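Hi there,

I know you've been waiting on this one. I reran it after we fixed the sequence typo, so this is the corrected version. Both the input and the resulting structure follow.
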Amino acid sequence: MGLPTPAPAAAPAVVVESRPALVARAAQRASRSAVRRSAARPAAVALRAAQRSAQRETKKIQEVRRAAHARQVAEVRAAAQRRVAVRRALAARRAAARQATAVVKPRAAVRPAAKHRAAPQRRAVPKRRAVTRVRTSMRMSSVIAYARSQIGKTYRRGGVGPNSFDCSGFTKRAYAQAGLSLPHSSGAQAARARTVSRAAAQPGDLVVGPGHVGIYMGGGMMIDAGNSRTGVVYRRLYRGLHIERF
């Protein structure tokens, strides 16, 4: 009797997925990848948008800075040109005064020859000067009164009143009250006057600075159309100003 033949060992079962299951799993993996991409995309888009916005803001800031620098350079150049114009006007006025003095001197040399004629003239001169000072004071009183009545009005470049002024427009309008017709320019107005010391300043004199004019009120005070912040203001004379007289 033979021994029984052992049954062969069962091979391990190999699980073979069907094709629909593979397709479903691949679709699931693709869906997960899409979800991850869709979650990351808004952040990337927002980052790029923020970068573009930052670039635009930086460009705007640079443009504003360049424009401000250009304005500052233009203002400095304009102020330098105004100073040069004032110096030239002063030099021209002094040269004209020297020429006038040179013309008058020969006539003065003839006067001692006729003493009986010169004496009455010398006595009459002080009286004429006194009358001139009185008339000048009366004329300047109208200028001073007008200037005081305009305190508080606004500053506007090119303004000549009655509601807003720039510096030379204000003085032009004020001195017109005394019958003086002045140009609408600080340098041209200064060129028509003569310089006096601060110690000799009188109310109604013209206050002159670099590209600026005002009216002296006495006691170290003046009235001028300063700028858009101050408007027409009553204030103390500051450094850099000198006195001119018409």
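Quick highlight: The chain has four helices and eight strands.

Best,
R. S.
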